[in-house]
Amino acid sequence: MLRSYAAQDRWQRHHKGQVIFEDDGVQYPAFTLLPLREAEESNSPLLSLVSVWLLVALRDRYEAHATAQLCERLSAVRISSRHTSSLLEFLLGRSQTCPLLVSGSSLASV
Fold first, then answer.
1. pTM above the 0.90 mark?
2. DSSP for residue 76
3. What's the confidence (pLDDT) of residue 105?
4. Which residues pair with 14 in a beta bridge?
5. Rounded to an integer, what distance in angstroms lies between the CA atom of residue 78 and that of residue 53?
6. Cα separations in angstroms, 106 against 36, 43, 70, 100, 109
7. Alpha-carbon separation of residue 97 from 2, 10, 28, 58, 89 (angstroms)
8. Which residues touch 1 (CB under 8 Å, ≥6 apart)?
9. How confident is the model at residue 103 (pLDDT cuts 50, 70, 90)?
10. Strand ordering across the sheet containing 26-29
11. Domain membership flag for residue 108
12. Which domain of life does this protein belong to (predicted)?
């Protein structure tokens, strides 16, 4: 849902531990794990919804504004600068692949 909202530039927000998708009246716990890894290795932890939401919310300001303090306050993992561009391109619908995306064959194990 986050990818769809990001690609269509629709409003989503974080409030009291929830990521809220306004148009659909849906909210998910910020700690919800997504089929995206923190790094390309198959044993890397999965990213939480709030970690990915923060990248979408800040976009090109992510590197400067996703500080350790902000990430800690939101309980988000700061995404490595090595992966922010490719992940953001994927989330905005500009790319169909992302090196952090869990492969279909591995989904059952997460």
1. yes
2. P
3. 63
4. 19
5. 11
6. 11, 11, 31, 12, 6
7. 16, 21, 24, 21, 9
8. 21, 24, 26, 28
9. confident
10. 12-15, 18-21, 26-29
11. no
12. Eukaryota
pLDDT at 87 over 90: yes
pLDDT(107) > 70: no
65 to each of 30, 33, 55, 104, how far by Cα in Å? 19, 23, 10, 33
Give pLDDT, residue 106.
66
Closest to 83 in 3D by CA, of 47, 57, 107, 50: 47
The whole domain housing 46 covers: 2-99
Tokens of 13: 């927000």
- C-alpha 110/C-alpha 88 separation (Å) is 22
- Name the domain count of the chain: 1
Q: Is residue 83 part of a domain?
A: yes
**DSSP at 110:** -
Report the mean per-residue pLDDT for the chain: 94
Three-class SS of residue 70? Answer: helix
